[in-house]
Amino acid sequence: MNIDKETLAKIAHLSRLEINEKDTDKMLKDMSSMLTFVEKLNEVNTDGVEPLTTMSQEVNALREDVAKPSLNLQEVLQNAPKKDDQFFRVPKVLE
Prior knowledge:
Elements: H1 5-14, H2 21-42, H3 73-77, E1 83-84, E2 87-88
């Protein structure tokens, strides 16, 4: 499948990309070759093939969820670079 310059400009606009005029021909060629590859994939017979959710055979190592007592406020604030009684002090972000 071939892409024209108008379609390329629309794709660039939708994806918020800026494409230089000098790169237009290369982009057209690259995108056309990608679409040709995808069209070839459509020709593959996938009857009876289960869809994959992942390519990895890894299994999650799960641990028991154990409730632990939380730290008290003073323990939480002890390593804070700046604190004010019971609050973290942070630089002002908004004016």
